[in-house]
Structure formats: structure tokens, C-alpha cells
Amino acid sequence: MKPERWLLCAASLCLLNTPAVSSVPVPTILAQAQGEEQTSIDVYRTVSPAVVTISTGRGSGSGTIVSPEGLVLTNDHVIRSARGGVVSVSTTTGKRYTGQVIATDRPNDLALVRLNTSDRFPSVKLSNPASIQVGQRVFAIGSPFGLSGTLTTGILSRVGRNGDLQTDAALNPGNSGGPLLNSRGELIGVNKAILSPGGGGNTGIGFATSATVARNFIQQNRNRTAPPITTAQSPSVPSTRGLGVTVDTGTLVVLGVQPGSPAANIGIRPGDRIIAINGRRLRGVQDLQTFLARRPASAILTVGRNRRLADVRVNF
């Protein structure tokens, strides 16, 4: 009997002295996870309305509205192919605006775009440089592969000697020009590149121009005025028979409308997209020019605006 009692006591002692698996209570762990999740939700809700998609007709990227008047910060390489510095800018609600590039900084891959509108916009605040710390949690919002309003998260992995920020937050083509944010929803960097040996895709190393550089760039150029948008007609289309618009050659998004033109008379405005003429879908600007060259008396245009389509009659 005694040996049996000893074994039981020994087992009890072993059980009592077994170290705990974790010294952090489960409720505390859950609360921390829920707190991190809520931070992600709050950052996205606050910032995403101020993140836009920028199209030049030959490519697209992202941008961040940094002033209520419609000043957009993006990459130089995003807007470099824009004809005349004119771009199409879409918000997360689908509303489109015409923008004019007013300044570029190629060494730091930055550009400023001013939206041609009197509308007021939600904007993002730039972070204080002292608050940019390796190890902090970061968030990227943009339009990878054209998927606007996409959120990814990670940490700030490194600050380069030139001030560039390195992150493991997933960045892909289309994220360029979008914001890298801290947990307060402040912009700490402008996403611009990924390390992709052999073009094999994202390796978990992305780069952004620091908010410190971006702040100086904005302050130096924010008061520049955009040159007026010029309207153009195809040389083969007489102005009296032309539609009176400038369009993006790739997307057929209207960039400018000539006052008093047929397009202006029916309410066409910058940001609209010409989809079809007389029910026939347009494949490109050449189709539009070919139709107008026939000197039609009238036509039915299918126009897209704010994700809605409408058929409108235009008389030339």
C-alpha cells in the first residue's frame, strides 16, 4: 500500500509542478487579436475613400488625395505615359474626374495631380517623420491588377540609407502610387516597387518613398496651377461636325469638353465614357473618328457615368 501511495503523491507533485503552456490568459490573447482586427477595419474605413485609381490609357496605378481640394499624390512612373499630363482619376465610389499633372520628381518617383473640379474630398494626413519606426504595423491600400480598394497589411521591415521604406505588406502591379499607412491611418510612404527577381511575382519585399520626402515635394509644388485642358478634333473631322471632346485613346474616357459643342449641349462631361454609337460598341478612338468622318446628322451615344449607362441623342 505504501508504494502505491508514494506513486500517487509523486504523480500529484509532477502535475502540480508542470509549467504552464502560456503565462498570458486566453481572454487577453483574444482581446489583442480583436484589437488588431479593429485597427485594420478603422484604417480602411478612414483612408479608403481618399485612395484613387489613376489611368493614363496605357496603364493604371493608385494615388492618395492629400488635400480636400483634390490634390493627388502618386508615382512619377504611374503618370509618365499620360498625354499632355492629363489622366483619368476614379474614386472608390466609381466617380471619375479628369486630373492634370502639375509636378514630378523622377529621382524619388513622385508626382502631383490636381483634379479639375470644385468638389471637396476626404484626404489623408502625412505622418510625422519621428513616428516612422522599423517594426511598426503598416497597411497598404490600392488597386493591384485594377482591383480598387484592396487592403494588405505587414510591418515596416527596414529604412534604407536613402530614406526609402521597405515592407513585407503584399504589393503588386497597380499598388504603385498608393499609400503605405501607420495604425493611425497616416501616410508614412508612397508605394513604388517590389523586389521580383526574374519577374516571378511578389517576394515579400516592397518599397515606398518616405513621407518625409513626399511632404517636402507637396509643400514645394502644391500651389502650382494646372495648364488648361485643350480640346482636340481629328484632322479629318470638321469642327462643325465633330463631337467636341478630347478622349483617352485607350479607354474612351472623356478628358475635356469644348464649350458649345454637341457633346456639351447634351451634358457630356469629363469622366464620362463613350461606350457605343447607334448600339455598336466602340473598340477604340479610331471607331469614333471613323463614324464622325461620315458627317452624320445625329447619333445615339451610349455613355457610362458612375457605373450606369445611358443612351443619349446628339445632333451635329
From TrEMBL:
InterPro entries: Chloro_Bact_Ser_Proteases, PDZ, PDZ_6, PDZ_sf, Peptidase_S1_PA, Peptidase_S1C. It comes from the Bacteria. Residues 228-307 form the PDZ domain. Residues 1-22 form the signal peptide. Pfam families: PDZ_6 (PF17820), Trypsin_2 (PF13365). Coiled coil: none annotated. This is Trypsin-like peptidase domain-containing protein. Keywords: Hydrolase, Protease, Signal.
